[in-house]
Amino acid sequence: TWTTGNVIEEQVAAIREQVGTKRAICGLSGGVDSAVAAALVQKAIGSQLTCVYVDHGLMRKGETEQVEKDFVAATGVQLKVVDAEERFLTALAGVSDPEEKRKIIGREFIRVFEQAQADIVAEGAADGEEVAFLVQGTLYPDVVESGGGTGTANIKSHHNVGGLPEDLEFQLVEPLRQLFKDEVRMVGQELGLPEEIVQRQPFPGPGLGIRIVGDVTRERLDLLREADAIAREELTAAGLDREIWQCPVVLLADVRSVGVQGDGRTYGHPIVLRPVSSEDAMTADWTRMPYEVLAKISTRITNEVPDVNRVVLDVTSKPPGTIEWE
Ligand code: XMP
Predict the structure, then answer these.
(1) Which of 108, 163, 106 lies closest to 136, judged by CA?
(2) Strand, helix or coil at 69?
(3) Which residue out of 138, 156, 157 has the highest number of ligand 1 atoms within 8 Å of its CB and is therefore the one to mutate?
(4) Does any ligand 1 atom lie closer than 6 A to the CB of residue 206?
(5) How far is the CA of 246 from the centre of ligand 1 (A)?
(6) Which residues participate in the annotated binding site?
(7) Does the predicted model carry a pTM greater than 0.90?
(8) What percentage of the chain exceeds 90 in pLDDT?
(9) CB neighbours (10 Å) of residue 277?
(10) What's the pLDDT at 164?
């Protein structure tokens, strides 16, 4: 019979058998899959695993800390954090085309990750240890779909940690290959991972970089981070996390509108709320969420986030609109 306990036991044995006494590397993205894959491998081989987290500066509020502190506390994993915010912001400076942003973020990510990988291999070699394995959070649906390709993959160049170039130097360890998403969450829970990571809704690899319509700056990211944190807080407080597949919060940095706030006229930016309901992200409908929750989010964002004087709701299905704006 299928139980999370059995899955964990089986995978731990399989990983130990595969890796032996060599070492492994795992990239963490902040998402569920890489976190659960890392936790499983950590349980199997402990200090033979090194995790890498590239902080590209495009994460939502508190997410990097979740990986650095909570994930490490829960698993005892050995983590190497690469602070690459400056590098990403420099590479993105002045770029507003969505595909160009995606390509830049994907390219920089691979470069930074490969450098970290090379450093770990070199450190291992200095200690007389061979780093031979790369852990990936590939799920069963990814296995089935690979080769076929999805509609969305053709529309936008996707970037995620699972999509790193296949590195022939490394053998892959893929402990989630037989699991569906909900099973991965159950395994993660059983392994004692933080709720915020296990129940996290989908979030794109390029992060907030593709939720700013316009070019990406630190100021704009800070502003969007605040607005997004407010929306997430209120959606959670209203108990809508399960009902809503995800709710991108988008800053229209290239748009301004006139408002009246406090003592006078403002000329600020709109924030878009994009709550969607979906089964698999291939199609989606906009979520008919309670007006009171929308009102609360709107009031809070315009009161608490400087330079934002308007909140608008996206009422477009997918198709024709994609879930993300870029
Ligand atoms: P779209 O915008 O194409 O998004 O309707 C479909 C789903 O994919 C997520 N998304 C990404 N996930 N890397 C990812 O890992 C990416 O580059 C990426 N772009 C979009 C999006 O959040 C939605 O869940």
Answers:
(1) 163
(2) helix
(3) 156
(4) yes
(5) 11
(6) 29-35
(7) yes
(8) 90
(9) 15
(10) 62
**Burial of 250 (C-beta count, 10 Å sphere; 0-12/13-18/19+):** buried
Give nearest CA residue, ligand 1 atom 20: 204
Question: From the CA of 128, how far away is ligand 1's center (Å)?
Answer: 41
Question: Ligand 1: does its nearest atom lie under 6 Å from the Cβ of 204?
Answer: yes
Could you tell me the domains of the chain?
4-198 (3.40.50.620), 211-313 (3.30.300.10)
Atom of ligand 1 nearest to the CA of 202: 24
pLDDT the model gives residue 134: 97
In whole angstroms, give the CA distance from residue 132 to residue 3: 30
Which pLDDT does position 150 carry in this prediction?
47
Q: Which residue has the tokens 């291939």?
A: 282
Q: For residue 160, what pLDDT is reported? A: 74
How far is the centre of ligand 1, averaged over its atoms, from the C-alpha of 249 (Å)?
14
Task: State the greatest distance between any 2 C-alpha atoms of the chain, in Å, as a whole number.
Answer: 69
Mean pLDDT (whole number) for 256-275: 96
Burial 198-237 (b: 16+ CB within 10 A, else e): bebeebbbbbbbbbbbebbeeebbebbbbbbbbbbebbee
Q: Give me the residues paired with residue 82 across strands.
A: 54
Ligand 1 pocket member 161 (CB < 6 A): no
Q: What are the binding residues for ATP?
A: 29-35
**Nearest-CA neighbor of 82 among 118, 43, 125?**
118
Ligand 1 center to residue 258 CA distance, Å?
32
Q: Which residues contact 284 (CB under 8 A, 6 or more apart)?
A: 245, 276, 277, 278, 317, 318, 323
Nearest atom in ligand 1 to 152's CA = 3
- Relative to beta strand 78-83, strand 171-173 is unpaired
Residue 166: what pLDDT? 62
